[in-house]
Backbone:
């Protein structure tokens, strides 16, 4: 039996056992299991627009998602974040702000659906949202019914104003409420990773935030006083130890992306690449109506998106090699068809020469029981950003990485090494 066949059998056994475990633990799951078998792709209003949202923006964003090629690349969710809310009516039904959304959410959902896209909305487990709008506490089943009647496809559920609540119980309530509507609605659990959601969220939601809010910088902390927003590198480092919890229908969420919101081209490219390696939801947070060609090309790089959307759903991992380059992290991600993705991430603020001597390295992933012995096998590689660049692991890899940039390749088995 060849090494490739053995590895495929090992991966199948691991994931069959994982599926059996989650099948047993989710016998009474309060979510639709068929949703998000790969990480969701879409857009959210908060990172760029904050509370400045209205139906004109959402319609124009849906138009731009189609026109820009994002829909063709796999993006489908157009998500309204905080501040769409009006007041509750006399019967307690939540209403959209009549000035911002005069046509109502149902009409907006119909418009988005006609584009072949899906509509997402936002609420909070507390009495109010983070912006002080009406939350869903005490109205969970009523709000879920309303969202279903409107044709909503995705709910981001936040964790502000939740004093006295237990996270697992609060999210169980909204999960049950959504399931009771009979409409398949993705539940995005957004309690910032404070209560270890990866331990209890899989039966309830399709994705769960693992950290506090992201900020549009590559390497920083923005101190708000009682809490902080985090740069790309800080959030990336916070994912350590979480990959075992991810898989089809259950995703670690390191927050929405900041691509196109003010970082350098290299930083945007690295940000997008690393979220793909994490098998993270790819939720854009920029202004799709006015993005540059560079931003569009990053967000629609199908080769990188395919790494994120790989059907195995295995989150990538940081590799500890025999000889490292200071400030450069090497990551690997097992893919279907015995393929791998690899990224060299330059954390340095200056250009850095990176050398990887393939034949001196052996990559082992205990989670998936996959491994590569470059001393016995030759792999061909394809650069996923400079697509004309390719090679094989027969020769050492030597590249110069720009500050905060990445070198990202897909590895494909070529042949056994003949000494």
Residues:
């Amino acid at each position: 039996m060849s090494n490739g066949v053995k590895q495929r059998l090992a991966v199948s056994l691991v994931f069959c056992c994982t599926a059996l475990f989650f099948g047993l633990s989710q016998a009474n799951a309060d979510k639709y299991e068929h949703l998000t078998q790969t990480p969701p792709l879409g857009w959210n209003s908060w990172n760029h627009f904050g509370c400045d949202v209205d139906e004109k923006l959402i319609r124009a964003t849906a138009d731009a998602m189609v026109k820009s090629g994002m829909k063709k690349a796999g993006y489908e969710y157009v998500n309204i974040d905080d501040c769409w809310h009006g007041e509750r009516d006399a019967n307690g039904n939540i209403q959209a702000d009549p000035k911002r959304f005069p046509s109502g959410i149902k009409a907006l959902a119909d418009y988005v659906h006609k584009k072949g896209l899906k509509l997402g909305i936002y609420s909070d487990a507390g009495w109010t949202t983070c912006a002080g709008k009406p939350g869903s506490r005490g109205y969970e089943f009523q709000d879920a019914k309303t969202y279903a009647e409107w044709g909503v496809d995705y709910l981001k559920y936040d964790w502000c104003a939740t004093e006295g609540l237990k996270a697992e119980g609060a999210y169980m309530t909204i999960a049950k409420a959504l399931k009771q509507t009979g409409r398949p609605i993705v539940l995005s659990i957004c309690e910032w990773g404070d209560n270890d959601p990866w331990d209890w969220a899989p039966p309830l939601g399709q994705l769960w935030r693992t950290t506090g809010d992201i900020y549009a910088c590559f390497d920083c902390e923005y101190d708000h006083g009682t809490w902080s927003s985090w740069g790309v590198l800080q959030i990336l480092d916070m994912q350590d130890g979480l990959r075992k919890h991810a898989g089809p229908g259950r995703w670690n969420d390191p927050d929405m992306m900041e691509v196109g919101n003010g970082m350098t081209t290299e930083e945007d490219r690295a940000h997008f690449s690393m979220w793909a390696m994490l098998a993270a939801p790819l939720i854009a947070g920029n202004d799709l109506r006015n993005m540059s060609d560079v931003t569009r090309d990053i967000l629609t790089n199908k080769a990188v998106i395919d790494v994120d959307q790989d059907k195995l759903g295995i989150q990538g991992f940081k590799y500890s090699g025999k000889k490292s380059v200071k400030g450069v992290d090497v990551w690997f991600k097992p893919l279907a068809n015995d393929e791998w993705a690899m990224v060299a991430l330059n954390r340095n603020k200056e250009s850095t020469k990176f050398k990887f001597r393939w034949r001196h390295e052996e990559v082992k992933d205990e989670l998936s029981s996959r491994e590569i012995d470059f001393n016995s096998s030759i792999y061909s590689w394809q650069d996923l950003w400079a697509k004309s660049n390719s090679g094989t692991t027969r020769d050492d890899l030597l590249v110069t990485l720009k500050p905060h940039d990445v070198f990202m390749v897909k590895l494909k088995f070529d042949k056994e090494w003949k000494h």
In short: The longest helix spans residues 3-25.
